[in-house]
Design brief:
By secondary structure, chain A is an alpha+beta fold. Chain A has four helices and three strands, in the order H-E-H-H-E-E-H. Chain A has a single domain, classed as Orthogonal Bundle (Arc Repressor Mutant, subunit A). Chain A is globular, with a radius of gyration of 15 Å. The N and C termini of chain A lie far apart (31 Å). The interface between A and B is medium-sized, with 27 and 30 residues.
């Protein structure tokens, strides 16, 4: 299981925001999505996920509401705020530049 | 914006709905867990197994909840709550420590808050006048009079006014006792002032009803009009607005009331209750010097410019009148004139003193905290090892000290309230602006600020020290004896030494004031009759009874006859001067045959007008010649008496009796008087003044209707007051009786201010001493507790109780030695501020500087002795076993 330290600092935030940009989700589903979409490479445990969610909520990028989940239980659903959407665009662009730069060095050097 | 609102909402929710938020977090994690269990079941595990596996995968949940809370950034508030709860528990667990600390702080903060109220009331509270910082009071000082805050005469005023460019509308005023008569009640005497037309507009006072004085009201032909104070209006005229336009009797003549001033207007004196218009009758000569000036600086003009112009005018005056030498116009701003210069230095000294008291309190509590921090080192080490952050720990310890200080501050408000009441009760009567002194919002804010500051001051050292705790070492140390590294002990020793030093400084200051006060009590005013066996009262007969010298003297003789007829009265006399501080008149003089250079003058000295029995009534000794007697009448040869000091100064080695003297203020005629006797020196200008030169004229040859009656009695003089009053009023029902008091009372009043200062500083020094004693006791007792084992060993090896006491007392003596040395040096430097308040004592008074340290040593010994004796009771066996 990947610990948050294995992810580049701030990357988890970006992943969460990206996933929530598709549709509102609860914590469990977010973790599942990250695993799926990364082709089983990245795994996020609750010990990293929930503090990150609470921090993002505190910062105002996401908001939470209680809804009934697909298996008929109450779950806390997070969704992107308007500010969060803008933040995501900015951060994603930033990430792409960074990743491209790193891969340039890694492949050619 | 909605972004910020959301954040704010979340933050509030986290703080105030904490249980709800925690509950939600719990639910959220439970949901996650249930999904994890579902997943494990889907992998084919039985439900129970699936649950265990899921819990394993989840990891530590409680810790995670804490991290989530941290993310919400509200932990500091929760920490605070936690710290507060913890602090309250700790404080309750050590009630003695808590009470001592809170009481010490309450005393320190309380006296400071009280002093703040006093100083603010006197020095900063806005005056009830318009733009008071432009109002200046102008005095005149010249030789031969040499009285710095002295008076000018009408001519001086007119010359000043004609040459003035810096002030708007200079005015003058004269303090006067005013007899208020009329049909509305018994005649009474109040303090009043005669003022020129611009007076009220100059000080910027607006009347409650009616009007103030307006230009033209001081013309020589103007009608006599008066403005009443609100207090007089309410007391005597029942707050009746119809008083406007009414004619009342002031000093025997009709005066029309034109206005009422609010009670807050208290200029020129705190006690003023009536202002009358002062007609500017063109003077024919210099004098009388009755007036002081008050004027408003023109906009944009500063004090230096005003002073420069006044200096020019002073030169002009000296050219016009060679009688004036070294003439100057001292100027005070309105507030300084109201507060008075000696009051300012007293305020300075007392403020310094309470500052020192607070310092001692803070040092004391810091000391207690350090002692406790040492005891709590294990607790702190345990908390550190369990993962408490050092910053968090410092915060916890600071929370404790600030909470203590806050409690101390709250209790201090009570102390301050009590102090202010005490000041009001002790009020030496002439305390200026006492009505301005109150415990208000400003004082509470001051208290709060001082408390927080004090809390941080005494909390920081122990907190930092606690956080520096070396974990492994502390935990390895054995339980009971652990504590106090040598570093912390030396810090505490320094604190106690500074406590001793500061207390000693206060002790020296209080000692000086007490000695000065005792000196004042020893001073004799020059009479031998016991003060409590004498009574005086001011008598102002009606116009009818005093219309000319003949009827006036006949009335006076009848008055004296009746007074002597009252049982208990031994002797009665009339006088315009009464020791210790009622000087009737002051004037210069010329001696027959004395060579004076052009413009040269004899000094202005006391001139008393008395009836023959005055000296025997008060017991003022006759040195040579004779007293006045009943043959010194208006048409007999003019006679005079002089004081011993006068005779010694002007007739050294000769007999003053037989010489001739003349009253010689400018404009006096050729009235030579024969000196028939020399009498003892008497103080008329207050006990602290040493000018005892005086000359006297008989009342019969220098008649004045308003005069004091002095009687001496065989017993308590106050007992005859009522009989005397009734007897005199039956003689003339419209006469005004005022200032009825025994000489003991007036003596007492003249020392009330020094007594007040001495008592206050004494109180502060007492508080400081108690605090210091507690501090010393605490340190030594702690030292003994730490050395229980060592003492036990020594006693087991044969040390006797005396050796143990010597060892413990040696600790105290060392501290005392350092403290006293530093304290004496500090006192030598600081007591200089007391200079202006001392009488007959040098600021380096040897007795005080010797006795105060002795007292200090005594206190230190007492504080050390208790733990020392306890140390001798240590049982060697128990001591050795206690590890």
């Amino acid at each position: 299981m990947s610990k948050p330290a294995d992810l580049v600092q701030g990357t988890l935030d970006l992943l969460i925001l990206k996933i929530l940009a598709l549709e509102p989700q609860h914590g469990w589903a977010i973790a599942q999505r990250i695993t799926q979409m990364s082709g089983d490479v990245l795994r996020v445990g609750q010990s990293a996920l929930y503090p990150a969610l609470h921090k993002l909520e505190q910062q105002g990028w996401i908001r939470a509401e209680w809804k009934t989940s697909e298996n008929n239980r109450r779950a806390k659903y997070y969704s992107l705020t308007l500010a969060g959407r803008k933040f995501l665009t900015r951060e994603a662009a930033q990430w792409q530049r960074l990743a491209a730069a790193i891969s340039l060095i890694v492949t050619h050097a | 914006m909605p972004h910020l609102l959301q954040q704010f909402h979340l933050r509030l929710r986290s703080i105030f709905r904490r249980d709800l938020v925690d509950h939600e977090l719990d639910d959220e994690l439970q949901f996650h867990l249930s999904r994890l269990i579902d997943q494990e079941i889907a992998r084919g595990l039985p439900p129970q197994e699936a649950r265990y596996s899921a819990l394993r995968l989840m990891g530590p949940i409680a810790q995670n909840q804490e991290v989530c809370r941290d993310m919400r950034q509200v932990n500091w508030i929760e920490d605070l709550q936690q710290d507060l709860r913890y602090t309250v528990r700790t404080l309750c667990r050590n009630p003695i420590f808590s009470i001592v600390a809170v009481v010490a702080l309450a005393l320190g903060i309380g006296v400071n808050t009280a002093m703040y109220s006093v100083a603010y009331g006197m020095l900063f509270r806005p005056l009830p006048y318009a733009e008071p910082d432009r109002v200046a009071v102008v005095y005149m000082n010249y030789s031969p009079r040499d009285f710095r805050f002295g008076t000018m005469c009408m001519r001086d005023y007119l010359l000043w006014k004609d040459n003035n460019h810096v002030f708007e509308n200079p005015s003058i005023f004269r303090n006067q006792s005013m007899d208020i008569g009329g049909s509305e009640g018994l005649p009474e005497q109040v303090d009043g002032a005669a003022v020129t037309a611009g007076f009220f507009s100059t000080i910027g006072a607006t009347p409650l009803i009616g009007r103030g004085f307006v230009p033209g009201d001081d013309k020589p032909t103007a009608d006599k009009i008066a403005v009443l104070s609100e207090t007089l209006w309410r007391r005597r005229y029942g707050s009746d607005p119809a008083v406007l336009g009414r004619t009342i009797t002031v000093n025997g003549g009709p005066v029309t009331v034109i206005g009422v001033m609010p009670a807050a207007v208290k200029f020129p004196r705190t006690s003023v209750e009536v202002w009358t218009n002062l007609p500017l009758v063109p003077p024919t000569r210099y004098g009388p010097w009755f007036y002081r000036g008050v004027a408003r600086l023109k906009p944009g003009i500063g004090m230096p410019q005003a002073q420069a112009e006044l200096a020019t005018i002073a030169n002009l005056m000296m050219q016009e009148n060679p009688y004036y030498k070294r003439l100057e116009f001292p100027v005070l701003m309105l507030r300084d004139a109201l507060v008075g210069t000696s009051m300012k230095s007293a305020l300075l000294a007392l403020t310094g003193a309470v500052g020192l008291v607070l310092l001692i309190a803070v040092v004391n509590v810091a000391n207690l905290m350090l002692a406790r921090a040492a005891v709590r080192r294990r607790e702190i080490a345990v908390r550190l090892s369990l993962g408490a952050g050092r910053g968090r720990l410092v915060r916890q310890l600071l929370t404790e000290s600030v909470l203590l200080a806050g409690l101390g501050g709250l209790a201090g408000l009570g102390v301050a309230w009590w102090c202010i009441r005490l000041i009001r009760v002790w009020n030496p009567g002439n305390f200026p602006m006492i009505q301005f002194i109150q415990l208000d919002g400003g004082a509470v804010a001051f208290m709060a600020a001082v408390s927080v500051l004090a809390g941080i001051m005494f909390g920081l050292a122990p907190a930092l020290q606690g956080a520096r705790t070396d974990l492994s070492q502390t935990l390895r140390e054995s339980g009971s004896a652990s504590g106090g590294s040598s570093g912390s002990r030396s810090v505490r020793a320094v604190l106690v030494v500074s406590e001793i030093a500061i207390s000693l400084m206060l002790l020296v200051g209080a000692g000086l004031l007490l000695r000065s006060f005792a000196n004042l009590h020893r001073v004799t005013a020059g009479f031998t009759k016991p003060p409590r066996q004498m009574l005086s009262m001011l008598i102002s007969p009606s116009k009818e009874k005093s219309q000319d010298v003949r009827t006036g003297l006949a009335f006076d003789n009848e008055l004296l006859r009746r007074a002597r007829g009252i049982p208990g009265v031994e002797s009665a006399a009339l006088t315009d001067s009464i020791p210790p501080n009622q000087q009737g008149d002051a004037d210069t003089f010329v001696l027959d045959g004395q060579e004076l250079g052009p413009g040269e003058m004899n000094p202005v000295i006391t001139l008393g007008t008395v009836t023959p029995e005055f000296f025997s009534t008060m017991g003022i000794p006759l040195v040579r010649g004779r007293y006045f007697d009943d043959h010194d009448l208006p048409d007999s040869a003019p006679v005079a008496l002089v004081s011993e000091a006068f005779a010694r100064r002007y007739f050294p080695g000769q007999d003053a009796v037989g010489k001739r003297i003349k009253q010689s203020g400018p404009g006096f005629g050729d009235n030579w008087m024969q000196i028939v006797g020399v009498v003892g020196n008497v103080k008329y200008m207050g006990l602290t003044m040493d000018t005892a030169m005086a000359y006297y004229m008989p009342l019969a040859q220098s008649y004045s209707p308003r005069i004091y009656l002095v009687v001496s009695t065989s017993g308590d003089a106050s007992l005859v007051a009522e009989r005397l009053r009734a007897e005199i009023q039956s003689l003339d029902p419209t006469l005004t009786l005022a200032q009825v008091e025994t000489i003991e009372q007036s003596m007492d009043q003249s020392v009330s201010r020094p007594r007040f200062n001495a008592m206050l500083l004494g109180l502060f020094a007492g508080i400081a001493l108690v605090l210091a004693a507690v501090g010393i006791y605490g340190l030594v007792a702690y030292w003994v507790a730490q050395r229980t084992r060592e003492i036990g060993v020594r006693m087991a090896l044969g040390a006797g109780p005396a050796d143990v006491i010597r060892m413990v007392a040696g600790q105290g003596a060392m501290l005392a030695g350092f403290g006293i040395g530093i304290g004496l040096a500090g006192a030598l430097a600081l007591t200089r501020v007391l200079q202006a308040l001392l009488f007959g004592v040098s600021v380096r008074d040897v007795a005080t500087f010797a006795l105060a340290p002795l007292g200090m040593i005594l206190v230190v010994l007492l504080a050390t002795l208790i733990p020392a004796i306890r140390a001798t009771r240590v049982s060697p066996v128990a001591a050795l076993r206690c590890e």
